[in-house]
Amino acid sequence: MKTWFTVLACLLFVSFATQAGTAEPPPQQKEQADEAQKRWDEQEYFNRGVAWLDKGEYDKAISDFNQALAINPKCGPTYYNRGTAWKEKGEYDKAIADFNDAIRLDLKLVEAYNNRGEGWRNKGEYDKAIADYDKALTLDPKRAVAFNNRAWVYATCPDHNRRDGRKAVENASKACQLTGETKWDYIATLAAAYAESGEFNKAVEWQAKAIALASDDRIKQRLRSRLELYKQGKPYRDELKKK
């Protein structure tokens, strides 16, 4: 009974206060409160979208980023994160469109250039991919992932006109140097670069290091398949993921 009485007392107090003529907040104050609530909601959708993105729940992430953009369509990082989710789903046209918007709103958003480059690469637009990696490295000369991605194109591109073993080794070595040779994927890129350069002994050596560092069994299996190619004196060629 005590709980119900407390609730009832509160309701009666509100009722009496309203009847007593409590003034509504000034319009400007109400607008400020509404705007603050919108910003709060936007941040909530954004943060939850990032959490879903980190968990690999890409559809849920996209849904939350859609809600955030409905509130604020001028937030570059939201477009960037939604583009990343589209990229992970293999929806490269949608990803590129979002990265375009992210860059339009923030010309210095380095990762938007890098990820747009990945979208172009997966569509087979290699010159555009290289141009975006170049731009990312102009903005941040120590962005290891951009060196790695550029090296991957030079080393494994199906179009022989875009391959360049020397540039591949140069870029992949830089990526490994910047990360202290701790990332298996960058080390695997260096192995592919050496294979493209015809230095298969080094390719085998670095690929073995990549396998040792990788923790996922499925990844290890893919890396072992490439290792067998290098042992046979064959370079690796990337597969187009166009969708």
Structure characteristics:
Serine Threonine Protein Phosphatase 5, Tetratricopeptide repeat; mainly alpha; 243 residues; 2 domains
Model description:
- The protein is mainly alpha-helical and 243 residues long.
- The protein folds into two domains: 38-141, Alpha Horseshoe (Serine Threonine Protein Phosphatase 5, Tetratricopeptide repeat), CATH 1.25.40; 163-238, Tetratricopeptide repeat domain (Serine Threonine Protein Phosphatase 5, Tetratricopeptide repeat).
- 75% of the residues lie in helices and 0% in strands.
- It is built from twelve helices and no strands.
- The chain has helices spanning 2-19, 27-54, 58-71, 76-88, 92-105, 110-122, 126-139, 144-156, 165-178, 184-196, 200-213, 217-231.
- It is elongated and about 80 Å long.
What is the secondary structure topology, with strand pairs?
Layout: H1 2-19, H2 27-54, H3 58-71, H4 76-88, H5 92-105, H6 110-122, H7 126-139, H8 144-156, H9 165-178, H10 184-196, H11 200-213, H12 217-231
Helix pairs in contact: 2-3, 2-4, 3-4, 4-5, 4-6, 5-6, 6-7, 6-8, 7-8, 8-9, 8-10, 9-10, 10-11, 11-12
